[in-house]
Every structure is written in structure tokens, then in C-alpha cells.
Design brief:
Layout: H1 5-23, H2 44-47, E1 52-56, H3 58-63, H4 65-74, E2 77-80, H5 86-89, H6 99-110, E3 114-121, H7 128-131, H8 137-154, E4 161-166, H9 179-184, H10 187-199, E5 204-209, H11 216-231, E6 238-241, E7 244-246, H12 251-262, E8 267-276, H13 289-307, E9 314-319, H14 349-355
Parallel strand pairs: 1-2, 1-9, 2-3, 3-4, 4-5, 5-6, 6-8, 7-8, 8-9
Helix pairs in contact: 8-10, 12-13, 13-14
Length: 359
């Protein structure tokens, strides 16, 4: 059969259509390493003078290509959103499940990323075998030591830092009622840091909490509590400000929280940042340009405040998720993160750029 020019044009069109269609298969399975962002825009890790990263979903990291690509392109530090919580690592006293934590560890090392461990001791995500445990105080201390030693020891020299104790204080500054407080007493906090330090003397250890930007009382209580422990020789090296905040919170309060925490002389980590638009959780909420502009301004203020810290005190910024579809607030509905539901940079992404004078 003789091919005419018309035949050739038809074949070329068909071939081009197939290739184009195949390349648009968006975010399932293995794909290219090209992030879905404008290559002319400098990425977050390229513009900041401190580490910037996100808490990661293991299912999305494993199964969603576009998610994985954005993480690799934008970030140089990562946190396990849930994979390193006690309920997931230790389903029974004699059993540990390392698959997801090991996967994240290997991903970080393959991509030259720092990894921040979250979290060793918390009032939530406690496995049933712990809540049902019937030992005396000494047995509970042994349980805590064994768990922390096992987990931190497994990743000794590989995980750079840990949230050792998470949310031990109420908003009024008093100890939060937890199973650890009930069974061991307030001593559980200092013991947890002691055990973690013994398991990995080189790891940077954080006390992590929320509310510093909306409550001067809690801000002072966290800083005072941590500094009293440090003065007693407890190996706490830094304070994490979760900063789950919203656009109605003033930029000055966010800046003041970071500044006051830095005045302790300890390392500062904005550890779980998201900035909600729909603070009142109205089901009919619609995003407005004004709200997005305010969100961008708040991200810029936080990024700029962290930029002012001495390098030795700056552990960087971690957002609690990558895109809005990952957020723990998404059902409100809300859109609190730097990337949209398709993992495209939002207006607030460029707040970081403005904080560093990058257009």
C-alpha cells in the first residue's frame, strides 16, 4: 500500500494523541521525577536559609506520583505524619511494625533529606495494650524506657531529631491528664527525654506543643516548663511550635510566639504549620481572594520571622501535609496548605518567596 501525504499526517496525529494522553495519567503509580510546577520558579528548599519540609502520608508517598515528585522537588526535611506514632509502631508489647517507618527513612536517605521523628510520647495514639497495662509505677517506667530505647535506637545516627514529648500541657499551663501522668507522674516528661538521649546522644530532642500563637499564658507556660527542666539537667534541646493556626490570628501574635520561644536560647522548630481559611468550620464556606491574600501574608510573616533567627537556633518550618487534599482539616472544608488539591503552588506558596526577597 502506498502512503500518501494525507496518510502520513493522520498517522502522526494519532501517534501524537496517544503520547499526549499517556503523559497526562496524573498521579498513580511510578512516573517521571519532574514536579508539577513551573521550572522557572525557585523551589522552597532553594530559597530558604533554613530547612523546609512537610509531614508525609505514607499511602500518598507510596502510591501518588505527583505527591512524591513535589516532596522531592520542594523539601529537604520530612516528618512522619503518623507512621512513627506508638499506635502504629507497637501494636502489642512484643511486636513492632517497622515497614512504613523504614520506608520513610529510606526515602529520606535516598533523596538527601533530613528526617524528624514524631512523636515518642503523646496522650493520643496510644495502643490498646498500653491503656490496658496493669503494672505498677516502676513497671510503667520500664515500659516507657523499653519503647523509647527500641524506637530511637533503631534509627540511631539516621533520624536527626525527635519530638520526644508532645502536648503535655493544657491551655492554662497545667499538666495535661494522660495515662503517662496517671501511671508515672510528671516525672514521665523528664524520663522520656533521658531515655531518648541515652538511646541516641546525638539526636536533637524537642518538646512539641500547640497554642503559642493564640495564648500568651500557654506560650509562657511552655517556655517556663521547658527551661525549668533544662536547668535540672533534662536533655531538651528545642521547642516545637505546632502552629496549627488560621487567617484570623494576627501576624504579630505568630511572630511574637517565635521570638519568645527563641529567647529561651533553645532551638526553634515550626513543626506542624497550617493556616486555616475556614476557622469556624462553616460547611458552606467558599474560598475568597481576600482570604487567600491574608493566608499568603501569614505564611510570609512566619517564614520571615524564622529567617531572623540565628542559624544555630533554627530547625526550620514543617507544614502538616503537602497539599490541601492531604490536610486533616479538609472535611471542614478547608484549604490550609501551600499546594492545592492538585499539588499546584497556591498564592501562599509565594509568601515564602516574598519573605526571602525572591520574585
Amino acid at each position: 500500500m502506498k502512503l500518501t501525504l494525507t496518510h502520513l499526517l493522520i498517522l502522526l496525529f494519532f501517534f501524537g494523541f496517544v503520547v499526549t494522553s499517556s503523559s497526562c495519567d496524573d498521579d498513580k503509580g511510578p512516573g517521571t521525577d519532574l514536579p508539577p510546577i513551573d521550572s522557572t520558579v525557585k523551589t522552597l528548599k532553594d530559597i530558604t536559609n533554613y530547612p523546609v519540609g512537610a509531614a508525609l502520608s505514607m499511602s500518598k508517598l507510596k502510591n501518588t506520583t505527583i505527591y512524591r515528585n513535589v516532596v522531592k522537588a520542594e523539601f529537604n526535611t520530612i516528618t512522619a505524619e503518623n507512621a512513627m506514632k506508638m499506635v502504629n509502631l507497637s501494636p502489642s508489647m512484643s511486636q513492632y511494625k517497622w515497614d512504613d517507618a523504614d520506608y520513610l527513612m529510606n526515602f529520606a536517605e535516598e533523596n538527601n533529606m533530613r528526617i524528624h521523628g514524631h512523636c515518642l510520647v503523646w496522650h493520643n495514639s496510644v495502643p490498646t495494650w498500653v491503656t490496658n497495662y496493669g503494672g505498677d509505677k516502676e513497671a510503667w517506667k520500664k515500659l516507657l524506657r523499653n519503647y523509647i530505647t527500641t524506637v530511637v535506637g533503631r534509627y540511631k545516627g539516621r533520624i536527626a531529631s525527635w519530638d520526644v514529648v508532645n502536648e503535655a500541657l493544657l491551655d492554662n499551663g497545667t499538666p495535661r491528664p494522660t495515662i503517662w501522668l496517671t501511671k508515672i507522674g510528671w516525672e514521665y516528661v523528664s524520663l522520656a527525654f533521658q531515655y531518648a538521649h541515652e538511646a541516641d546522644p546525638d539526636a536533637v530532642l524537642f518538646y512539641n506543643d500547640y497554642g503559642q500563637e493564640y495564648s500568651k499564658v500557654k506560650l509562657a507556660a511552655i517556655n517556663d516548663t521547658v527551661m525549668n527542666l533544662v536547668k535540672r539537667g533534662v536533655p531538651i534541646h528545642g521547642i516545637g511550635l505546632q502552629m496549627h493556626t488560621n487567617i484570623n490570628q494576627s501576624a504579630q501574635n505568630m511572630i511574637d510566639a517565635i521570638t519568645a520561644t527563641a529567647q529561651t536560647g533553645l532551638i526553634v522548630h515550626v513543626s506542624e504549620l497550617d493556616i486555616a481559611l475556614n476557622r469556624d468550620k462553616k460547611p458552606e464556606y467558599q474560598v475568597s481572594p481576600a482570604d487567600l491574600t491574608t493566608q499568603k501574608s501569614r505564611y510570609r510573616s512566619i517564614a520571615a520571622a524564622m529567617r531572623q533567627l540565628p542559624a544555630a537556633q533554627n530547625w526550620g518550618i514543617t507544614t502538616w501535609g503537602v497539599g490541601d487534599s492531604d490536610s486533616w482539616l479538609k472535611s471542614n472544608p478547608d484549604f490550609p496548605l501551600l499546594f492545592d488539591t492538585q499539588y499546584k503552588p497556591k498564592m501562599c506558596y509565594y509568601g515564602f518567596h516574598e519573605a526571602f526577597g525572591v520574585n
